[in-house]
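Look over what follows to help learners.
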Amino acid sequence: MKKTSDGIFRHLLSSSSLGGGVWSMGDQSIVSIGNFLLTVALARTMAHVEYGGYVVAYGALYFAHALHNALVVYPISIRGAHHSRAELRVLASESLIITYLLALPAGALVGIAVSLVLHRTDLNWLLLGALLAWQTQETVRRALMAHLRHRAAIAGDAVTAAVQIGSVAVALFERIPLNAASGLKIIMAASLAGAAVHIAVLGLGAPILSQLGIRFSQFLKLGRWWLITGIGSSATVLLFPWWLAHRNLAEAAIYQAMLNIVQVGHPVAFSVGNLVIPAVAHEMLKPHGEAGAKRITLTYMFQGFLILAPLFLGLLLVPGFVMRVAYGSGSGYTQHTTILRVLAVGWLAIYVGHVLNSYALGKKLVVETAVAQVVSSVVAVLAAALFIPIYGIGGAAIGYLAMAVGRNCALMASFAKSKLHRTEHVIHPSAPFAPSRGTVDSD
């Protein structure tokens, strides 16, 4: 069975190594365009304080999604790569059940957190609904991507983006006021529509309920260290807007408005990561796969840089013009050009770290990624505590850059240490075999 599934994946990888990158980036571009237009429309039409409330609510969804990323998305990406299509359909069905069991307590917790920060409870049920819808779509979408079927995922993601853009257009045409609740409703409706299309494309197999506990144990075994990384990463990203929101919701809105522009590069980062993880996992099955894994990772990373270069040159050279185009000259978001430049440099550092992290995950070096995230989180907390009270939004931007640099340094140090350990095993062949620190058997 292993040889058969390995042959299937080798064919998929070889036949899509060139086109796969194009379809992956195209798919992520569609996803990001829908998200970007939604967030920009909300920022343009809401008062700063109301948009700050939406930033807090959306951030809570992002944080809850870390649990799903670690215990469902990552295991599907690794295990699904070596399953046949029929097996993948069963895996997707079982993953949906696990998703819902995890989402209910996670949704309750983030609802409480949002209520405490915003001093309002009207968003709680909408948060839970948006979380369930979002994770339903992401589970089935990632099952498609496990077989590098990025082209097949485009239809569902295009429907999601169309619902997002169409909902905003209708609201503006009908002069319906947009607020934080509106944003969550749009996320819910768009995700459900996209999920329906993804399910139609993939198909779902009958879950084996008697083995659901075993499946969850496998997912937990594979994702437990990535859970630490994901929660740490999400909490670190949320630290800055939530810290600002505690000071003033308007500051959180201004910070997020600039971050929206910087994060236009997300489709490139996500598509590169989506390609690197399964490709590296496959290369490492070969006797001397390390060189191939590095070559694939660097190739995709530099391809991403070529695409990102025009965008980020614009952000660094004419940031004020970019903000005026996005939000309008009277929005109150256009005067922080230096801060936007700092955020742009920080995002480029995050992109490098994202690719390095994906390389490590493909090798199942989950402990190393967890340690790097701890370093990043510690740096972020220290930077926020030192700089936000003094510089406000500028202090948050400094912290954003510092956390990215901290994680990258930690990852590079862990790679160097891993290489040193491999060299020691070569020099002392009589030493008993020991698996690399952080590897996980995937039965």
About this structure: The mean pLDDT is 81.
